[in-house]
Amino acid sequence: MKAYVTPFDTIVAPFETRSTSVPALASYRAKDRSSLAQRRSKRLREPHEFTRVTVSERTTDDVRLLSWGHPGRSSAERVGYFRYCRTRLGHLHGNDHLSVAPQAVRAMADILLRHVGDDGTLFPYISADDDGGLIAEWVVGEQRIEIGVARDGSFYLIILSDGKIEINVDHASAEGAEVDLATVRKLLNILTRKVNVQNPDWRRIFSAK
Amino acid sequence: MTDEWQWDDESIPDDQLIFRFGNPDVPDHVDLLSSKPTLLAASMSAKEYDGWSVYREQLMRDRNLDIVDIENSGRGGRKVFQMTVGEARKNNDTYAAGVVDKVDEEDPVLGECHSLIRVPKDQMTPSQMRGLRLVLLGLLAPAVPLAS
Description:
The complex is a heterodimer.
Chain A: H1 2-11, H2 22-31, H3 36-45, H4 49-56, H5 61-65, H6 81-94, H7 102-116, E1 125-128, E2 134-140, E3 143-149, E4 155-161, E5 164-171, H8 178-198, H9 203-207
Antiparallel strand pairs in A: 1-2, 2-3, 3-4, 4-5
Chain B: E1 17-22, E2 29-30, E3 37-38, E4 52-56, H1 57-62, H2 67-71, E5 79-84, H3 85-89, E6 98-101, E7 114-118, H4 126-137, E8 141-142
Antiparallel strand pairs in B: 1-4, 1-5, 2-3, 4-7, 5-8, 6-7
């Protein structure tokens, strides 16, 4: 029986460790023949083992803030930023009536998915402009961020704070625009944290569309 | 555009309302923080390089026109929003804008009520007009019928 106690102790790792695998834990439990009192004692030592496995698989700080895997959340509210953006861009691209240029879709996907967001980021509202391009917008109180991509893939970026234009720039492509896109990313991180605290159900705004 | 570029008419009072229509194809959106309705940039064009088209309250009253006439213009079903001239004019260190009247010859119904929100001529670039649009979007509110 002692042979089984040792592997369990290796599983009891610091909270930050994220490599704990569920199957290993399950096979250990199946073979566990220790007394009820011993098992209860182990559970007390490690009360969050399953929660920890679920959350830690998802990595970043922002994701943890968003309560991924919380049992009270419906599946519609558990869609992440990447999936939302891909789905929305796919819908706009596939809509013949809007005639969005493929180059614009590629450029917007590059900006949104590779440069400004991670899976916990606030969703932008993405729409087609009347010229084959796309506009992505975030409105958070007095802060507005607007990224518009033209049909040739060039883009502009505007950040407005309290009625004042902080940044208003044009770029030929995301390459060479890293500094401005990093500014957007930082601002979105701050806004995401703020909205998660003050309006944690913000995803419902998008599930209705 | 003439050589003399007038971008503000000081005889137009600050408390006068101006109306702007939005694209009915763009859905309503809400502020992610407060969940209050807000306007999206996609709902209004920024490619108006002679100035941002609006309709002015007094000119509409003089001709017995109301919000419903703007709603029914174009393809119809337009959403109409309002702000005051003073709000549009509010200058700060990132932009300056003013309001001038300019008849729209192509619009037989509302053409004579037509005004423009303009910025100084050297700032009338595509980039500045997009910036101006974003500033103005935050100031617009749903229009209230003049008859009420």
